[in-house]
Structure formats: structure tokens, C-alpha cells
Sequence to fold (226 residues):
Amino acid sequence: MDEYRIVERVKDWYREGELAWYYLLLNGNRISFVPPPSFHESNKQGQISDRTIGSVYLIGTIDDPIILFEFPMFDNIMDIVQLYIYKRGYVLADEPYGRYPLPNLKYYICGARHENRLAVELVDLDVAANNLNLTKIVSWVLGPKLLRENEMIEDDDLDKIVDLMRSQELFAGHTLDDVDDILYRYFVQNERELSKEVFKISQAYQQVFRPNRVVYDTKTWRLVLM
Fold:
């Protein structure tokens, strides 16, 4: 499946006013967006888990914060962690993505709008998980055990995974908590002396998430060259 084609479909879905969270299903060469209630109703026995290739989060009926527009994955990194756990064959106790693993999950996609621009970023879950060291962290916390029927990953284990991931200094020598603070001070509090640090964080963001990012002008819906 061509990634740019998926991004274009997400943009078209946004234009139609569909602002929420969706599953991305693949049927042959056709893709479709399915909201969670319909997905869970159709997937009561796990019938469509294998066709689920992505999760799409569209936001922005009004202007999203500039930080979310510039760095969508920072604000939604918890989704990446949870989706990767489902991809690995586990299910979380509160079932945020249903009661069945999603073994063929490939993409996480987020759309955010600021002023007259819509940014859509698509990341490959395996690439992001590897660069965030989630592959090793999940194996270390959960062990090599295979998921048994009705076995769930409890909140304590999820918290351990998230804490270990967030404590790493992956972004120009900064943890994710540091990044949140620096970006807030730069974009919201206008501390422009942090510009070099923000630039280095931006470079690290590209290296870790490897996003396929496309920006559209929401007046013409043409591509904006960045």
C-alpha cells in the first residue's frame, strides 16, 4: 500500500469533516476508515483483526496548538506504545484497542491543523518502536511469554514500559519530559534563546519517528512545500 495514497485519503476524510479516531482496514487494494464502535462490533470474534493495518487520529475543528502541529508524535506517543503492544500479540486490560491483538498493524497516522495548514504524519510502527527501544523494553517487562487466552497486560506493566521509554535521552540528549518543557517554553512562552535546542530536537524527532509528513493548505487543499 502506497503511503502517500494513505495520507491523501486521510486528508480527504478530514475535508469531509470526519474528526475522530479510526481504524484503517485493508481489503485487497482498497482502504477504509472504521470508527471504534463499528470496528468492535464487527470484530467480536477477531474476524477483522488481520485486516487492520493502521490507526488514524484526526483532530482540529479549531486551531490545534502549534506544538501539536509541528510535532504530532510527541503528543500522541502513548498511542504508539499501546498500538505496538497490540501488534506484538498482547491485549491491554482496559482494551483501548479491543480484545484481540492486531498483528498486521503497520501505521500510526495523526492529522493536526494550525491556522490554514493541515499536517498529516504517518509513521511505521516497527520503525518507531525500534528507534524508541520499545522492542527491547516490551520484551524485558513482559518477558518471552505468549499471550494466553483471556490474559491481559495490566496497568502496572504498561506503566513500567512507558516510564522506561520516557526516561531515555533520545532527543538531542533530552528525555521526553525535558522535550515537553523545552517546546512549551519556546513556542508558548516565547523563549527564543532555545531555538538551537529546538532545532536539534526537531532533527532527533525525524530520526526517531521517520515520519512521512505532508502539509496542506486548508483553503486550496494543495500541498505546501516545506
